[in-house]
Automatic annotation (TrEMBL):
Keywords: Iron, Iron-sulfur, Metal-binding, Molybdenum cofactor biosynthesis, Pyridoxal phosphate, Transferase. The keyword Iron applies. HAMAP family: Cys_desulf_IscS. This is Cysteine desulfurase. Its EC number is 2.8.1.7. The keyword Signal does not apply. It catalyses: L-cysteinyl-[cysteine desulfurase] + L-cysteine = S-sulfanyl-L-cysteinyl-[cysteine desulfurase] + L-alanine. Its cofactor is pyridoxal 5'-phosphate. One of its GO terms (biological process) is [2Fe-2S] cluster assembly. It comes from Accipiter nisus.
Length: 550
C-alpha cells in the first residue's frame, strides 16, 4: 500500500559525505516534507532507477540559508512516465533545539507532461494508486477527460497553500490529541487546551499583543462581522455612527449596510486615485456619536497600504475605537497593535499559509473594547465567541503566525524582487499597461494591472494555464467591474481589463517568467483582434470620437 504522503528526497543530501566541496552552512541531515522518496516508490514498484535527479542542487549558493532551485524528477513504471518539476526548494534554518539543522522541504510541484499506459509489470490499479497519491499533493489534477495539467498558482490574495510545516503541527491534533480543549476533567482536554493556548500566544506575538486579547474565529469574515456589529450594538444607546471607506472588503461593507437597516449611520469615505484615504476627510467625518472607524490595512484587490499608524493616532485623539481588517497584511508586513494604536484587528488563517476555516480577532483589553457577541452558547473565548475551538485549526494558525514572524523579512524582500521582475518585464514588452493603486504605499505581492483594449475576462480565459483573477474571490463570478477600481476613479474600460497577479512565499522566478511570457503573448493576440486597438495604432484619439448608438 503506497502512503499518500509522497516525499522527494534529495540525493545529494542523502549522501552529503561524498561531496568534495562542502558548504560550511550545509547541514548534516536534510528533512524533506511530503514523506517517502522516489527511491522508496521505485523499490515498492520493483523498478530500478525510478527516481532520477536531473541537475545538482547548488548548495554552495551565495545565500546558503535560503535559496531556490528547480529539480527534475521522473517516475517510470513500464509505460508510466511522469516528469515532475519540483518548484520552490528552500533551505530554512530551524532554530529549535539544533540551530544548525536545516528544515528543508519541497513545497510545490506540478506535472509538466502526462502520458501513461499500464505495462506488464505494473497493473492499472497500481498505477491509479500512484497517480492518486500524486494528485493528493497537487501534483496533477484529474477530470473526466483523464490527466490534465494544473495551472501555475498566482492568486495568493484569494488564498495561500498550506505551508508543510503548518500541516506538520496540525497532524497530531487531527489524530492522536483529539480532546475537547474546553474539557477540564481529563488529560485529553488539558492537552488540547495547552495547544490552543500556545497557538494564542503565537498569534499574539506576531502582532505585539497579549495572548488574552486573541479570540479565535472561523476566519476574517466572522472577525469583521464581530468587530463592526459587536461594537456598534454594544454602544448603540449612546453612539450610532460608524466611519469606513468605499474600498473595504465586501464583508465590512455588507456589515455596515446591515447596521444601517437597524438605524445606524455610516460614512463611507472616498479614496484618492492612488487608493489612499485623505486623512483630512477622516478628521472631518467624526461626529459626537461616532463609535468606530474601520479601515483595512492592505487592500485585497490593489494591494494599497493605508496609513494605519496615522489613522490610529487620529482615532485615539477622538476617543473612537479603531478596527482594521488585516487579513492581507498579517505575516507579510510588520504589525504592532500598540504602536499603531489599533483597538480591534481581524486575522485570517488561509491568507498566511495556514488552514482554511480559522481566523482570529484581536480585541484590546486596556483601554477595554466591549463587543456584543453574535452567537450564544457555552461562553467560550471570553464569552465573545461561543462554540468549541477547533484545536487542529487553531494550532495551524499559530504555527503559520510563528513561521511568518521568522521569515517575514526574507519573504518580503524576495516577493518584492519577483513583483518588480513581473511588472518591469510586462511593461517593457506591452504598451498601455496601467498599474492600479499607489506604486509606493503598497504590498508588493499584490499587483493589479489593467491592459488597455483587452477584455479582462478574455485574457483570463486565454491564460488558462496560470491561476489568476480579476479581483476579489468573493465577487469574481460577477461580470461587473471592480467596485474598488471604480472607487479610485479607474475608467470603466480599464476596470474591465484588470488582472490581479498574486506573488507569494512559494512563487518562483520560473513561474513569474512563464506568466509574463504567456501574458504578453495573449495580450498581443487579443489586441490584434480589437478594432479599438487598430484605431489607436492609426493615431486616432478615441476620446475625441462621438459614439452614436444604433
Amino acid at each position: 500500500k503506497i502512503p499518500l504522503a509522497v516525499m522527494w528526497q534529495e540525493w545529494l543530501a542523502a549522501d552529503s559525505h561524498t561531496n568534495s566541496h562542502e558548504c560550511p552552512k550545509r547541514p548534516t541531515t536534510l528533512h524533506h516534507r511530503f514523506a517517502n522518496s522516489t527511491h522508496q516508490l521505485s523499490h515498492f514498484l520493483g523498478i530500478p532507477e525510478a527516481g532520477k535527479r536531473a541537475e545538482q542542487c547548488s548548495c554552495c549558493h551565495a545565500d546558503c540559508k535560503a535559496h531556490h532551485e528547480t529539480h527534475l524528477y521522473s517516475v517510470k513504471a513500464a509505460g508510466l512516465r511522469l516528469p515532475i518539476w519540483a518548484h520552490g526548494h528552500r533551505h530554512l534554518e530551524k532554530k529549535a533545539q539544533n540551530p544548525t539543522q536545516i528544515y528543508c522541504f519541497v513545497y510545490h510541484a506540478s506535472i509538466t507532461k502526462l502520458g501513461w499506459r499500464a505495462g506488464p509489470r505494473v497493473s492499472e490499479p497500481l498505477v491509479n494508486v500512484v497517480l492518486e497519491a500524486l494528485q493528493a499533493f497537487r501534483l496533477v489534477s484529474f477530470g473526466d477527460g483523464g490527466g490534465a495539467l494544473r495551472p501555475l498558482y498566482m492568486d495568493v490574495q484569494a488564498t495561500t497553500p498550506l505551508d508543510p510545516r503548518v500541516l506538520d503541527s496540525m497532524l497530531p491534533y487531527l489524530m492522536a490529541y483529539y480532546g475537547n480543549p474546553h474539557s477540564r476533567t481529563h488529560a485529553y482536554g488539558w492537552e488540547s487546551e495547552a495547544a490552543v493556548e500556545k497557538a494564542r500566544r503565537q498569534v499574539a506575538d506576531l502582532i505585539g499583543a497579549d495572548s488574552r486579547e486573541i479570540i479565535f474565529t472561523s476566519g476574517a469574515t466572522e472577525s469583521n462581522n464581530m468587530a463592526i456589529k459587536g461594537v456598534a450594538r454594544f454602544y448603540k444607546s449612546r453612539k450610532k455612527h460608524i466611519i469606513t471607506t468605499q474600498t473595504e472588503h465586501k464583508c465590512v461593507l455588507d456589515s455596515c449596510r446591515s447596521l444601517e437597516t437597524e438605524g445606524f449611520r455610516v460614512t463611507y469615505l472616498p479614496v484618492k486615485k492612488n487608493g489612499l484615504i485623505d486623512l483630512k476627510e477622516l478628521e472631518s467625518a467624526f461626529q459626537p456619536d461616532t463609535s468606530l472607524v474601520s479601515v483595512m490595512t492592505v487592500n485585497n484587490e490593489i494591494g494599497v497600504k493605508q496609513p494605519i499608524r496615522d489613522i490610529g493616532e487620529i482615532c485615539r485623539e477622538h476617543k473612537v475605537f479603531f478596527h482594521t481588517d488585516a487579513a492581507q497584511a498579517i505575516g507579510k508586513i510588520p504589525m504592532d497593535v500598540n504602536d499603531m494604536k489599533i483597538d480591534i484587528m481581524s486575522i485570517s488563517g488561509h491568507k498566511i499559509y495556514g488552514p482554511k476555516g480559522v481566523g482570529a480577532l484581536y480585541v484590546r483589553r486596556r483601554p477595554r473594547v466591549r463587543l456584543e457577541p453574535l452567537q450564544s452558547g457555552g461562553g467560550q473565548e471570553r464569552g465573545l465567541r461561543s462554540g468549541t475551538v477547533p484545536t487542529p485549526l487553531a494550532v495551524g494558525l499559530g504555527a503559520a503566525c510563528e513561521v511568518a514572524q521568522q521569515e517575514m523579512e526574507y519573504d518580503h524582500k524576495r516577493i518584492s524582487q519577483l513583483a518588480e521582475r513581473l511588472v518591469t518585464k510586462i511593461m517593457s514588452e506591452v504598451p498601455d499597461v496601467v498599474m492600479n493603486g499607489d506604486r509606493e504605499h503598497r504590498y508588493p505581492g499584490c499587483v493589479n494591472l489593467s491592459f488597455a483594449y483587452v477584455e479582462g475576462e478574455s485574457l483570463l480565459m486565454a491564460l488558462k494555464d496560470v491561476a489568476l483573477s480579476s479581483g476579489s474571490a468573493c465577487t469574481s463570478a460577477s461580470l461587473e467591474p471592480s467596485y474598488v477600481l471604480r472607487a479610485i476613479g479607474t475608467d470603466e474600460d480599464l476596470a474591465h481589463s484588470s488582472i490581479r497577479f498574486g506573488i507569494g512565499r512559494f512563487t518562483t522566478e520560473e513561474e513569474v517568467d512563464y506568466t509574463v511570457r504567456k501574458c504578453v503573448q495573449h495580450v498581443k493576440r487579443l489586441r490584434e483582434m480589437s478594432p479599438l486597438w487598430e484605431m489607436v495604432q492609426d493615431g486616432i484619439d478615441l476620446k475625441s470620437i462621438k459614439w452614436t448608438q444604433h
